[in-house]
C-alpha cells in the first residue's frame, strides 16, 4: 500500500533523501513530480502543505501532511519501529538531527549557491559563483575532518544522517566536487562511495554521477536580436495596458485543453488517454509540433539536460492555457538528446512559445495528425516507453517533464 505522496523531483537531493529513507524501510511513496514555481506548488492546496511552495512536501494516505525535508525524512524513517537509522540512544538521535540540519542548511546552501548558477538554475555572476565556491570549503571541511576520524556520521553504523547527507551531496558530486576535490577530500569521498552503494540508495539513484571537472557555465543560447529601440521620449503617452495573450483572440475551442490534461494525468497513457486524445483532437483548433533541442552536442549530464527542460517549461507559464506537451531526455550522460511534442492552440507555434526566451534554442516541426507515422511519434513522445534512434543509435528514455 502506498504510504503517501512525496511532491518533489527525482534529481533533487532533498527529494532523494526522503525516497532513500522510505526505501530503506520498504515504505512505498508515490513521487509526484513537482517543479518549483509550477502551477502545482503555487496552488492554494499545495501552499497549505508547504507554505513557501517549495519541494519536498509530504501528504500521507491518511491525510497527514508535512513540509521541511528533515521532518519528512524522520517521519518516514520512524514508521519502522525497529529501524536502526535513528540510532540507539537519545544522544545518537540528537546527533543524527544535528548532522541532518548541518547538511541541509550549511552544506547544501553553500554548495547550491556554487552549482545552481552554473546549471542555469539561478542567474550567473562570476564573482558570486567564485565567492560561493570559497564559502563551501568551510562546511565541507567539517565533514572531511569528522569522516577522517569516524567511519560514519554517527556511531558505528549507517544512520539516517548518512543517507540524508549523501543524498544532499549527489548534485554537488555531479557538478563541482571534481576529481581534484575528491583526491583532496579522501574521507568524504570514501564515505560517500559507501553510502551510495547501499541497496536503498542504489534503488533511488542507480547511477550517481562524479564530475571530472567543475562544470562550466554556458550562457543560454539566443540568436542575435535586433537592438532594442531607444527609450520613449518623456512626452510620449504612457504605454497601453499589457495586452491579453494573443491566443485569446482565437476564442474558446470545443476541445477543452484542461479536459485533455485531466485525461493524461488520471488515465493510463497508452490504453486510455491517447485513444481519448485522438478521438477528440481538433486539427482546426490545435496544431502538433515536434520540439527538438538544437544544441544536443553540448548537453552533458542527463539531469542537467532535464533541468533545461524544466526551466523552459517554467518560462512558458504565461501560455499554460494554450499548451500541452512532454519533453524528455534520451540517452546517457555525455550522449543525450532532448526531444518532445507539444500541442498548441492555433496553427502557429510562435504565439504560445515566445513568452519564454529559450524557445529559440528549439527547432519546431509541424506534425500532420492525419499521418500514421506522425501520430505514432506523438504517442511515443507522450508515453516515454520507447527509445529514440539518433544517428543509428538507440537512446533510452532517461527523464522528462510534462507541461500541463
Ligand atoms: N526549508 C526547506 C527548504 C526547501 C527548499 O528550499 N527546496 C528547494 C528545492 S531543493 C525549492 O523548492 N526551491 C524553490 C524555491 O526556493 O522557490 C526544507 O528543508 O525542506
From TrEMBL:
Give start and end of each GST C-terminal domain.
89-224
Q: Which UniProt keywords apply?
A: Elongation factor, Protein biosynthesis
Chain spans, region Disordered:
225-248
Its name, as the record gives it, is Elongation factor 1-gamma 2
Please name the taxonomic classification of the source.
Answer: Eukaryota, Fungi, Dikarya, Ascomycota, Pezizomycotina
**Protein biosynthesis among keywords:** yes
Q: Which domain of life is it from?
A: Eukaryota
Please name the PROSITE patterns in this protein's record: EF1G_C (PS50040), GST_CTER (PS50405), GST_NTER (PS50404)
UniProt family annotation: Belongs to the GST superfamily.
* Single GO term (MF): translation elongation factor activity
What the entry lists under Pfam families is as follows: EF1G, GST_C, GST_N
Which InterPro entries does the record associate with it? EF-GSTs, EF1B_G_C, EF1B_G_C_sf, Glutathione-S-Trfase_C-like, Glutathione-S-Trfase_C_sf, Glutathione_S-Trfase, Glutathione_S-Trfase_N, GST_C
- Listed Gene3D superfamilies: 1.20.1050.10, Glutaredoxin, Translation elongation factor EF1B, gamma chain, conserved domain
Question: What is one cellular component GO term in this UniProt entry?
Answer: nucleus
Q: Which residues form the EF-1-gamma C-terminal domain?
A: 243-404
Any idea where the GST N-terminal domain is?
Answer: 2-84
Q: Which CDD domains match?
A: GST_C_EF1Bgamma_like, GST_N_EF1Bgamma
The residue ranges flagged as biased composition, category Low complexity, are: 228-237
